[in-house]
Amino acid sequence: MEILERALKSIGELDNTAMQRARERLDNLTKPKGSLGALEDLAVKLAGISGKVFNDFRKKTVIIMAGDHGVADEGVSAYPKEVTPQMVVNFLSGGAAINVLARHEGAEIICVDIGVASDVDHPGLLVRKVKKGTDNIAKGPAMSREEAIKAIEVGVVTAWESIDKGSDLIATGDMGIGNTTPSSAILAAFSGKPLEEIVGRGTGIDDLRLQKKLNAIRKALEVNKPDPEDPIGVLAKVGGLEIAGIAGVILGAASRRVPVIIDGLISTAGALIASKIDPRSINFMIASHVSEEPGHKVMLELLGLKPMIFMRMRLGEGTGAVLAMNLVEAAAKIIKEMATFEEAGVSKEEI
């Protein structure tokens, strides 16, 4: 708990002075006031995070947390659990979608085994296994409270290490067969919304598997009775190890005032946990996209975050978050490189 407490003590508020200076500069650039919409909002938020009007991103990093889920035994996914370690190897070999998009964006990938059920032997893998997959949430808690805290702290330390090596823009990613099920259970615990409104088809499951998924989540909520006032308890009872790790990455980045781009449903479940542990962490989150999963939109609404991209994506891995890196950099470049009316010799007076 010491690492988590240290991170929480270091999380602050946005720098209002820097944000005001950013707004003033944006209003004096050669364009109608507010005409770049969300890019301007993002530039102001980046100023609030860093305390600087001008921001450069020299090292972009995607942190992928990988873990397995006992609830996969309930038949909630179209793919077997063996796919989790296989995809981890694919990430490390450079063949997955996230690798393509990260190369396109010039971002490095850190892949963390925080709870894969089998052991993956690869020199590029960061092995910080808390346990070999969660237990089946339809029958009991996913993990102990101590394991949940340990998994959060794995994320915190991973973020800190990455930042110490120069990372100044972080994106969250995930891998774990069946992980939309605990993510949806977490949302149900915090939102109280009917499962039929927030549970989607994940990897594209058919009607039969969707019913199994709904039943598994319903059982998990009945058996574990997660208390929304106890976010670590919710995580331990119905969550996942990679979700915990993502929550930790967010808290770790927030404690160092580094912006963190949130990916899809699983990453946003981690963001929800982080926000409940410390609401100030939301200040350092940037929502990348809204996925096809119905619960993702609800999660973003609970966080008060507006996504920038609508691409009908539902892959995970950090793919949407990496795509949004380009927009974050664009916002930073607009405020820095665009000329003011005075610099360009353009009349600012409205006709």
TrEMBL record:
GO biological process: cobalamin biosynthetic process
Source organism: Caldanaerovirga acetigignens
Function, in words: Catalyzes the synthesis of alpha-ribazole-5'-phosphate from nicotinate mononucleotide (NAMN) and 5,6-dimethylbenzimidazole (DMB).
Record: active site: 317 (proton acceptor)
Catalysed reactions, as listed in the record: 5,6-dimethylbenzimidazole + nicotinate beta-D-ribonucleotide = alpha-ribazole 5'-phosphate + nicotinate + H(+)
Signal sequence coordinates: none
Enzyme class, UniProt record, top EC level: transferase
Keywords in alphabetical order: Cobalamin biosynthesis, Glycosyltransferase, Transferase
Matching PANTHER family: NICOTINATE-NUCLEOTIDE--DIMETHYLBENZIMIDAZOLE PHOSPHORIBOSYLTRANSFERASE
CDD domains in alphabetical order: DMB-PRT_CobT
Highest taxon of source: Bacteria
UniProt name for this protein: Nicotinate-nucleotide--dimethylbenzimidazole phosphoribosyltransferase
The enzyme's E.C. designation: 2.4.2.21
